[in-house]
């Protein structure tokens, strides 16, 4: 991976995904995509070399669309990066907070800013991304409509910053995965590694309990386990999991072998370096 690559992200210039991509790859060319599907498609089609996609947030939880798209996307996780999220309430020049009757933002940003929405008691409208909502507010020129968006987006689209740090908690952080068409060939040399994979348990009693038992008995730290329905069946549950280990490590190899006995369709989506944020937790806020 080099800094000069083209990197797809979902949203418009100034979005948090844009900022995360630029922070991870200074000097790279970021390519905005209207939807997550568009970003994945741009990577698959070779229009870009990488994609930076949000996968979960400390306040809003998982980005559900990404968990559904990723397993069958045909691309691979090759890295991760973290970004502290500081939201701002923004409006057209001259707007006062008392003028606001409507706030627009991405569904996750709205979920991260419940307190100010309750304080103002105004209508909320869900948009495709935070920066896009900022541009909508600028284009409309209506003082009654504001957005929750990055400070950078307000600067780009000529909006006033009415209040900063409107998120509900100071720890508000989004984790982004870095995607590529080819998997990363990473050595099992003892360096901190994350392995991401999906699996489906068999529809039998205690299948999940038995499937996960091998990770406990082999001392493998599982940092993430998400479940969601697939193919419209209540009995077809797919799990997205992450562990802090390399598949070639003896413990994880044994755990995955045991997983195969109680599940099917086990697929590794990526093996990649663990970001220092997991241990240091000291990245500056945006």
From TrEMBL:
Keywords: Amino-acid biosynthesis, Aromatic amino acid biosynthesis, Lyase, Phenylalanine biosynthesis. It catalyses: prephenate + H(+) = 3-phenylpyruvate + CO2 + H2O. The keyword Lyase applies. Residues 196-271 form the ACT domain. Pathway: Amino-acid biosynthesis; L-phenylalanine biosynthesis; phenylpyruvate from prephenate: step 1/1. The record marks 174 as: Essential for prephenate dehydratase activity. GO terms for cellular component: cytoplasm. SUPFAM superfamilies: ACT-like (SSF55021), Periplasmic binding protein-like II (SSF53850). GO terms for biological process: L-phenylalanine biosynthetic process. Residues 6-181 form the Prephenate dehydratase domain. One of its GO terms (molecular function) is prephenate dehydratase activity. Its EC number is 4.2.1.51. NCBIfam families: PRK11899.1 (NF008866). This is prephenate dehydratase.
